[in-house]
Amino acid sequence: MTGLNLRLPSPLTEARDGRLDANGIRLYLKRDDLIHSEFPGNKWRKLKYNLAAATKAGHSKLLTFGGAYSNHVRAVAAAGKHFGFSTVGVIRGEEHRPLNRTLEYAIDCGMTLTYMDRETYRHKDESDVIGRLADEFGPFYLIPEGGSNALALPGCAELIEEITVDFDVICCACGTGGTLAGIASALRGDQRAIGFAVLKGAEFLVDNVRELQEKAFGHDSDNWSIELDYHFGGYAKTRPELKTFIADCERRFGLQLDWIYEAKMMYGLMDLVDRGHFKTGTSIVALIAG
Q: If one looks up domain 60-139 in CATH, what number appears?
């Protein structure tokens, strides 16, 4: 099931910088943002096996959840357009007009948007909430917020085999924990994964990652950790120093970072490098997922 012109394996490039050289660190960028313009990075990897399962089960409708700036909602809408599913996006909070580009794109792809108050949204995984959605929209294949479920993890794990250099650490932005759980499961030997939470108060992600790995593989790989201090105020929030960092990364590496996810991860990674968190000679892969 693709029918898409996917760029796989995604490119791997080395980022050279004086700060890295001074600390004896080699940094490689895994450019999953270049896989496909409508399915960048972990979005395709997470959806791949879910779409196959939905098709096998005979579903014609996909329903998912997300915030107003959710790249996952955007990707599910694109999946509907490309693979013939009708789609429903349940958006956290109230509707705001004009719509942002993410939600405009989702509508252009044919997605039906519905809005859920934040209190109800906190219980979105409960059976009564799912039942009310089924009553309103009919039968659907449910893809959870961020696309993170047991079927998402094998797709994320596959990217490790695409990395053609020896490395010690791989880093990724962390919103729901699915990408971190998947890539950590495929690591070998002493390799470790670090997730950088983009949400404030994201301690729950530790349990999320463990539960996802248990459901997908039957065990927790215990070779990962999550940095909680680089959220810049919370999801879809920023500060002047992050904006400055984004502009600096574009000058240094020719890399345009997504400010909601990847910029926070890269800022945190470079801060850890500057603070001597990694020993000299460490090779790091940073996942740029779009």
A: 3.40.50.1100
